[in-house]
Write a structure and sequence with these properties.
This is HTH-type transcriptional regulator SgrR. It comes from Pantoea phytobeneficialis. By secondary structure, this protein is of the alpha+beta class. The chain folds into four domains: 3-71, Arc Repressor Mutant, subunit A (Orthogonal Bundle), CATH 1.10.10; 74-118, no CATH class; 153-258, Alpha-Beta Complex (Dipeptide-binding Protein, domain 1); 343-537, Dipeptide-binding Protein, Domain 3 (Dipeptide-binding Protein, domain 3, Roll). It is built from 19 helices and 23 strands. The strands form six sheets. Strands 15, 16, 17, 18, 19, 20 and 21 form a seven-stranded mixed beta sheet that branches. A five-stranded mixed beta sheet has the order 4-5-14-13-12. It has a four-stranded antiparallel beta sheet with strand order 8-9-11-10, covered by helices on one side. Strand 6 and strand 7 (165-167) form a beta hairpin. The chain is globular and about 100 Å long.
């Protein structure tokens, strides 16, 4: 008998005996289920084997047997959901749960860790928010940046250990003169849908990238046959191959804008492809036709562990397993291996004074807000458990030290200050409360403005201060420069609103005349950008996981991780 039919019979018993215990006879049950006594006996045996009920028969004709229905309607539903999860049928699970989808989080939490079935290796890791935007060239947070590098390929890529530029889709490139470069593509590269990647996809992708300030000097990108592209620049860029390894330069199908749900279900040419993506999990599977080395892990399932966090709880902390939230690391019973030694993140929290706000036109006002919201002052507002994990920052990188220019301070004439931050970051409310407490002592009310990440990254809002966080991948100094000259949020403010000065910085940095460290010193000295904290981070994974090493984005390379058999 099918399991569905057996469940229907069991549900009928639940309706007949809502108290879930009864003294009855086999014949009574057979009559209720409109079947023979013999068939009823078979049903009871099957339900007992499934663990749904217990049947205690007493010898002798006419004696009543004791029936115990061990599974409630909800338990039966959850057991079926477990079986569907075993089959990776998330759609079936969601349909089954209906309005009771809140049960899914607990079901998924119990499945964290690793599994090896028929030589197929899977790793399930927790995360605290859905990952619905995996679209290169849009505003992406650090986890999404890590993921799209697993899903897409670029003309070039960066070795995570050495920080050196490597071949990716392009197997060779040549600088023809100061403004012209030619890149030669590998033949036979396929997208996940089986279509061939050609120069026309590269042209479409890089032409789209020119909308970003970082790529504004790409004057033209032209196909030279199917396997070669010519790039013409408006300004020299000796590190163009480095630039083309940026996440915004990953190669998409030329018709990506016509594909439905491309942000959540993108099609790339990288080592992993998106098999399923919804509010509950993101499942990536190894792409067998990848042009490079095939990934060792067959499947990565990133499970959304949504838990309400009390507003008075300091939910910190990059010291967790693979996310920003402390509780995530503790959820997986299978994650029993000791964590890697803590490392100090390459990047951190910052405050940005918006040059469009009249509050900061006077440098004495910028020095005042730096003194008021100094990292040490904010840190003192934090619980002791959090303080140990936050290191006051003196610059964007932990081994740099830059200070705001010395001079007089003056309190601006204000009663209210607007502080903008992006949503779905559970440390921000803790930081904002600390800022509010500090400034309240000076009679200043802080209005916290929460906005979508896309709006925050674009600086599309009316605010005096912006609270944010950034992490820099290898090579770190170059990526600091790329962030300072390419992040739309910063463009309107770090130069004090002077567009000509910003453009000058951008050209000097590209030409190698203005190193990122020197540019950072200039910006911090003027007080527009004010670093706050670096986090201590650590990575924890299953004992059997090999090749799992922390990267600067707080994740690990899926392609080189594997599960050692027990």
């Amino acid at each position: 008998m099918s399991s569905q039919r057996l469940e229907q019979h069991y549900q009928k018993l639940l309706t007949l005996f809502p108290q879930r215990e009864a003294l009855t006879t086999l014949q009574t049950l057979a009559d209720a289920l409109f079947c023979s006594k013999r068939h009823m006996r078979t049903l009871i045996i099957q339900m007992q084997s499934a663990g749904w009920l217990a049947w205690h028969a007493r010898p002798g004709r006419g004696h009543l047997a004791k029936l115990e229905l061990r599974y409630s309607q909800q338990q039966l539903m959850l057991a079926k959901a477990e079986r569907l999860l075993d089959l990776n049928d998330m759609r079936g699970v969601l349909t089954l749960l209906g309005d009771e989808k809140h049960h899914l989080a607990s079901l998924l939490r119990g499945r964290l860790g690793h599994s090896v079935q028929d030589e197929r290796q899977s790793l399930r890791v927790p995360y605290y928010r859905p990952l619905q935007n995996l679209y290169p060239g849009t505003a992406l947070r650090r986890t999404e940046i890590h993921l799209i590098r697993q899903i897409f390929s670029g003309l070039t890529r960066i070795d995570e250990h050495s920080g050196q530029v490597e071949q990716d889709i392009a197997h060779r490139w040549r600088r023809l003169d100061a403004l012209h470069w030619r890149f030669y593509l590998r033949p036979g590269v396929l997208f996940h849908d089986g279509t061939s990647l050609t120069s026309h996809d590269v042209v479409a992708s890089l032409t789209r990238s020119t909308q970003s300030p970082l790529f504004s000097h790409l004057k033209s990108v032209l196909a030279q046959g199917e396997l070669s592209v010519m790039i013409e620049l408006s300004h020299p860029d000796e590190l163009l191959p480095q630039l083309l390894a940026d996440a915004a330069a990953l190669i998409l199908p030329a018709d990506h804008h016509q594909r439905p749900d491309f942000a959540s279900h993108p099609v790339g040419s990288g080592p992993y492809q998106v098999a399923e993506n919804n509010e509950w999990h993101l499942r990536l599977t190894a792409f067998d036709r990848y042009f490079g080395f095939r990934s060792l892990l067959d499947e990565i399932d990133i499970i959304t562990c949504l838990e309400p966090v009390p507003s008075d709880r300091p939910s910190a902390l990059l010291s967790s397993g693979m996310s920003d939230i402390e509780y995530v690391a503790a959820l997986g019973a299978h994650f029993t291996a000791s964590a890697e030694e803590p490392v100090l993140e390459r990047g951190g929290y910052f405050l940005l004074c918006d040059s469009r706000s009249p509050l900061w036109h006077n440098p004495a006002h910028r020095r005042w807000i730096r003194a008021q919201l100094a990292p040490q002052a904010i840190r003192q507002q934090m619980p002791e458990t959090v303080r140990a994990l936050w290191l006051p920052a003196e610059s964007l990188l932990s081994d740099w030290s830059h200070q705001i220019a010395k001079g007089g301070m003056r309190t601006p004439d204000l009663q209210r200050l607007r502080l903008a931050y992006h949503h779905q970051h559970w440390e921000f409310p803790v930081l904002i409360r600390a800022c509010q407490q500090i400034l309240a002592a000076s009679g200043v009310d802080v209005e916290a403005i929460e906005m979508p990440y896309e709006a925050w990254a674009a600086g599309a809002g009316d605010a005096d201060l912006w609270l944010g966080t950034v992490n820099f991948t290898l090579p770190e100094a170059w990526n600091v420069g790329a962030w300072l000259t390419g992040m739309p949020l910063l463009k309107t403010s770090i130069s004090g609103g002077d567009e000509h000065l910003f453009s000058h910085w951008q050209q000097q940095w590209r030409a190698g005349v203005l190193p990122a460290r020197q540019l950072t010193e200039i910006i911090i000295r003027e007080g527009w950008l004010q670093p706050l904290f670096h986090h201590w981070m650590r990575l924890q994974g299953p004992e059997q996981a090999q090749g799992m090493h922390f990267n600067n984005l707080g994740w690990f390379d899926f392609t080189s991780t594997w599960i050692e058999p027990e």
